Amino acid sequence: MSTDDQPEPAADRGVQPNAADEASAPVEPVAPAEPVAPAEPVVETETSRDEVVVRRAPRYGAFLLVGAVVGALVALVLSLAFTPDPDRVAQDFTYDPGQVFGFLLLGGVAIGAALGALTALIVDRALARRTKRVVAERDETHRVDD
To answer: Shortest CA distance to 71 belongs to which of 118, 1, 32?
Structure first.
């Protein structure tokens, strides 16, 4: 064989070495880089004081809902408590118990909701007497740009 017939080394031909060759090569540990501390932003805090009134208030929607439910229950009780005698129904012209409940339900829900709203207003007026004046501090923090 002549020197021309011999194969060239892998590096001369542009061929990458095998992964198996890299795995068997010793790996030297790399020292970790020093952590770079980020520059702390310059912040400024402004404090303001305000006098505020603190008071409790009822939730009107809850009072209206409870009043309407109580009105519906009263309508149900009234329609069941005063059912007509079956013999009398055959002789006289009367309304069906379901119709009576429907009529009473319309009135009961409306009156119950109105009474619930009135109760909420009374509770609101009673709690208005317990108002307190306090000083509130508000802190605003913002970044100061150079």
So the answer is: 118
71/107 Cα distance (integer angstroms): 8
Element (H, E) at 124: helix 97-128
d(CA 134, CA 38): 41
Of the candidates 144, 145, 78, 87, the residue with the CA atom closest to the CA atom of residue 109: 78
Rg (CA), the chain: 43
Written as tens digits, the pLDDT of the chain (146 aa) is 555 555 555 555 555 555 555 555 566 666 666 666 666 777 888 888 888 888 888 899 999 999 999 999 999 998 888 776 666 656 666 777 788 889 999 999 999 999 999 999 999 998 888 888 888 888 888 787 75
0.70 cut: is pTM over it? no
Dmax (CA) for the chain in angstroms is 133
d(CA 65, CA 106): 14
The one-letter amino acid at 18: N
SS3 assignment, position 134: strand
